[in-house]
């Protein structure tokens, strides 16, 4: 059970989020429909927040991304944010039902949703010579490192890799510390990228114990 201090912090975080939504976001029927349609079809309520969607879209605009690879589609909510920047989005989803809902939600956008396990699909994309400007990893936490390794191969020089929920994974681990192995330590030894870890606090999940999260952001160095 959360403490009174953490409950108070959640309340404050919800006020901050509410102000940010009111001030920085505009009403969006397509995104709202994606959420309601996903819920109506029984998809789990684990999508990114609207503020995070805006952040991802801004990241793509900052690097002028023309191609985005998304690992983990769910109902296509984040996919919509990416596609509306003008980028071509290739998304991978392991669940056929989720893919079907995502296809409904992204209708009319420049989106390709591939059905399959990411670790089976990614080698095929590499074999085809596909390259991406921005790669968003939001799938099985236990496979983040494998996804990241493929992302490095699939990213253009100076391309960006964003791995979601990294801090939540670390916080929920019983063995985290300077000497323990994690995605962060493995990425730190990867000389093909420059990377950082960004902490976030949000009321999006509605639970005090899930307020704290964050992501790993990496840029793939230009190949010599």
Which labels suit this protein?
seven-stranded mixed sheet; 224 residues; globular; 7 strands; 9 helices; alpha/beta; 43% helix
* Share in helix: 40-55%
State the shape. globular
- N-to-C span: 53 Å
Q: What is the strand arrangement across the widest sheet?
A: 3-2-1-4-5-7-6
Q: Please give the radius of gyration in angstroms.
A: 17 Å
Q: What structural class do helix, strand and pairing data support?
A: alpha/beta
Please, how many helices? Answer: 9
Which regions are unreliable across 5 or more consecutive residues at pLDDT < 50?
A: none
Percent range for β-strand residues: 15-25%
Largest sheet: 7 strands, mixed
Topology, number of strands: 7
H-E string: HHHEHEHEHEHEHHEE
Mean pLDDT over the full residue set:
93
């Amino acid at each position: 059970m959360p403490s009174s201090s953490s409950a108070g912090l959640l309340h404050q975080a919800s006020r901050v989020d509410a102000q940010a939504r009111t001030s920085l976001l505009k009403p969006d029927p397509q995104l709202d429909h994606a959420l309601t349609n996903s819920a109506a079809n029984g998809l789990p309520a684990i999508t990114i927040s609207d503020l995070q969607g805006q952040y991802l879209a801004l990241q793509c605009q900052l690097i002028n991304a023309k191609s985005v690879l998304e690992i983990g589609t769910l109902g296509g909510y984040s996919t919509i944010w990416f596609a509306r920047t003008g980028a071509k989005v290739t998304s991978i989803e392991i669940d056929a039902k989720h893919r079907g809902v995502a296809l409904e939600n992204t209708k009319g956008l420049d989106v390709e949703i591939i059905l399959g396990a990411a670790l089976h699909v990614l080698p095929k994309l590499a074999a085809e010579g596909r390259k991406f400007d921005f790669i968003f990893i939001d799938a099985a936490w236990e496979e983040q490192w494998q996804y990241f390794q493929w992302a490095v191969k699939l990213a253009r020089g100076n391309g960006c890799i964003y791995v979601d929920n990294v801090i939540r994974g670390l916080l929920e681990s019983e063995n985290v510390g300077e000497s323990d192995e994690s995605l962060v330590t493995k990425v730190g030894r990867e000389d093909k990228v420059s990377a950082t870890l960004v902490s976030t606090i949000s009321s999006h999940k509605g639970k005090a114990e899930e307020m704290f999260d964050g992501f790993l952001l990496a840029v793939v160095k230009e190949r010599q």
